[in-house]
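Any chance you could type out some protein's one-letter sequence along with its C-alpha cells so I can compare the two?
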Amino acid sequence: MLVLPDRAVQPTMYFIGVTTGKSSIMRVFPHWAAVLGLDAVLRGIDLEVHAAADDYRRVVDFIRSDPRSLGALVTTHKIDLLSAAREMFDELDPYARILGELSSISKRDGRLLGHAKDPVSSGLALEAFLPVGWWRRTHKWVPPAEALIFGAGGSALAVSMYLLDPRRGENRPGKVVVTNRSMPRLEEMRRIHGQLDYGVPCEYHHCPAFEDNDRVLHDMPAGSLVVNATGLGKDRPGSPITGRARFPRQALA
C-alpha cells in the first residue's frame, strides 16, 4: 500500500524505489548536502514493483503540487511511472521520449520536467574508461573495433545510445553488437535503434545459453569494447559468458 510523505517543510528531493530505507544513499545524502551547502533533505517513497497506475500518478501529483518538493530520483519504476503519468509532465527530455522511461523528476519555473539520465551517466563512465579518441583511432584497423553489449535491458540501451550518438562524430565504434537471452528485449532495442537511424551498423543476437555469448565474443575484432549490461555479477551471481570464453586482442572489458 502506497504511503505518501507529509508535505515538505524544507526543500526536499525524493527517492522513488522499492525499499528505499535500506539504500546507502539515505546515509550519504546528508553528507553531500553538508559539503555542497544545501538546505535540503532526501525522503524515500516505496512502491511495489509494477505498482498500480494510480499509485504512480498520486506520487507525481504530490511532487507537482507541493511547493517544497523539488524533484525525485526514480529507480526500478522508470518505465511504469512514465507510462502511468506521462501527460502530467510539462516537458520530457529527448532521452525520456525515445526510451519511454525517466530516472529524474525536476521543476523549473512552475513546470514539471522528466528526464532519462542513464545515457548521460553511462557516457560519463565510458569516457572515464575508454582511451581518448579510441574509436577514431581504431577506424584505421581492418576490421575496425566494435562494441559488444551483453544484455538488452535499460542499462544496455543507455550504453548503446551513448555509443551511437551522432554528436560524437567519427569517434564511434564500427558496429554495435547486442546479445540477449530473450527475443522481446532485443526486438525492442532494434525498434528504438531503427527509429534513430544514427548511421552505425547494429547487430542483434539471440543467445539463450552462455556458450552462445562465447561464440559472439570470439568473433569480435581486435580492440573491441565488451560490456556486461546483464544483472549477472551485480543483482545475481555469475557471468554472461563461460570460463572458456576468449576475448579479442586489446579488448576493453
About this structure: The chain has a mean pLDDT of 94. The chain has two domains: 12-116, 120-228.
